[in-house]
Amino acid sequence: MNTALRFLLVTFALLAAWPAVSQTHEGAASDVSAYERELTQISEEFQNVLEDDGKLVDLSTRLQTLAESVLATGVELSPRLSEIRIRLEQLGPEIEQGAEPQVLQEQRAALLEERALINTLIGQLEDLSVRANTLSNDISEARRELFTSTLSRRSNISAAFGQELIDDIRDRYAVFANKIGSWVNFAWRYKSGSMVAATALSVMAALLFLVFARRYLGRLLRRDPKAVEPGYFSRLIVGFLGTLMPAAGVWLFLVLVYALYNHFSVLRDDIGQILVAVFLGVGVIYLIWQLSEAVLAPRLSQWRLVAVTDRAAVLLKLLVLVMAVTIIADDVITQILKIVGESLPITIAKSLISSFVVGLVMLAIASVRPFAGEDGAPDRPWPGWLRFLLWVTGTALIIAVSAGYIGFADFVSKQIVITGAVAATIYLGHLAAHALSREKALVHSRLGKRLHVQLEMSETAIDQLGLVLGVLLTLTLLVIGIPVLLLLWGFKWGDIRSWMLGTVTEFSVGSISISITGILAGIVVFIVGFWLTKLFQRWLDRDVLERSRVDAGVRNSVRTGIGYVGVTLAALVGVAAAGIDLSQLALVAGALSLGIGFGLQNIVSNFVSGLILLAERPFKVGDWIEAGGISGTVKAINVRATEIETFQRKSVILPNSDLINASVGNWTHHNTLGRVEVAVGVSYSSDPNQVREILMSIAEDHPRVLSNPEPYVVFVNFGESSLDFDLRVYLADINFMLTVGTEIRFAIHERFKAAGIEIPFPQRDVNLRVMGKEDVVAETGDAFGPIETSPTGHRDE
What we know:
This protein is of the alpha+beta class. Helices cover about 70% and strands about 5% of the residues. A hairpin with a 3-residue loop joins β4 (about 630-635) and β5.
């Protein structure tokens, strides 16, 4: 019966799963065939683009995507082999013909056939993976060889400047003019409305951005000509924002124009490529102009970030712009030649001219004497190492161009200008971030003063905000600046994107997989959850509990409890968002319980005691309590301890467990009604009734003393030196105990003095008597006689 039941169950499971499994394998086989075709196509294209680095990068990106797909398909197929092995074990070994049902024999054969198919597919996938890795290495090697050959190739300069150059310029210009003319004619006839609308929208968007920036940043974007010696932090911030915001407005206009033109089908492919080159050139030149204006400030020396003379500032700005315009013009011409047709003479001529100009500009910068001399002495030159570096770089460019190494000179000159501009911007931002992070830097700035006045932020909060902003600015510069520098140094966006995705998605350290994006997502989720918790606490406290006239202690308990719950939930959701399996926290919980048993029991005890205090509320925030020999007001009930502020304004931190396990006196537990006792002693010659009447009149005259319960006087005792009385009065707010007691004592002293009632102090009379012989009592005599005792005894009650 058991064997038959097992066969029935296995047969049913195999029949149910077989159609889906067949469809899965058919899809995998189709995917493998597609991978094979894609790999073959990439291999064929690779042989035709050996001289184009950009296309090689595209092939490398496609190849990486293909390799990831191959790996994913193999991972999907592998678990099926384990399932087949388990099912074959369930079927058992093959029995002789006719000894088992036909359906089981067919299923065993089908499983064996499926296993063979899966093994074949996995073998093909492994072969594809090996071929893809080999081809990827070949592409990388081809790119390295192309880069090396481009830099080391030597050109014939004399042959470039001849009749062939003039003919090529004439031909390429004619083609370029024809393309531009035909496009302008087409756009004017059929797309003029779209062009005007796109241009107008782009201008409006850029203007709105700049107006918004000026409205909210105001004087941080412009230099005040009337300012006298502004601080270095102010100069940095104004220089950085004054460079960034206008440049961002120009770039926004250029990007929107291109995007809208492309959206309205105004651009052809060739015109679009030319427009991109021109727009990039305009944007870079404007950025360099703004950057040089921020650093050198030729017309406003008080805002200058480097201590150079006015003449040097003007000259340096001009030389930097000349270099920038030269390099950008070279790049735009290169892009145009790709559209109208390559020309070796034109390529050599433009690269030679641009590199030669950059070399001369470097030599001119080296000869500038930027620093003012002391006491009428001539201006001083650059430091020796910088002057040497400028001379060597400029001379090397000129020599390389003269020797025919145009590719090398062109690459170096472009890196000097464009990389220098980006590096200077990043460095300027770094200086601004460092200055922003310094202690009290933001507090004393114009922005800090506006935050203090308009948002009523404290100096501490503004200082912490400056630190956070400095860190965020540094991280932003790194995230943006490093990819830009890599692009300028010859890396392609595909390389950078692959590297960044591989870094931030997931990488392994031993057997542990770490995902930076997951960690960042978890941190963001926790911060959002924490912020929402605080927001909900504030709303519940102000708009619900306060309007409901809920007691302050209850409000504090509810607010604190919600804070604990919200932070815990935010932490759990953040951990889950980071990709950490919450079930794995059981091991951590076990280790934590062991740690609690040994070293954390006091902390846990205080935490639980804090929860009990919040729930039972033997005292609340604002209560006047006495505990551990300390008397003061409860300021906060925290996770581990309770803060008590004494009347000397000293904060005392008491562990919560001490408050749970020891006696605590609470003057204001249920209400603030309390009794004040004022003790006073009068001389034995005083009239007790008069004393009582004066004390009662003092109590009745005091405005804070309650008439119900009414005050009363207690004749306490016959003291050694005085008749002792207590004046006992009730107050609606016991917090005024010391004030009322002091005022009553002043009144007692004043009225007793007016009534002639003496307030004695302890004293003892000592009488000395000189005795003669006749006054001496015999030692054996008895001056008082015997003491008589009662015949019957009794107990003292």
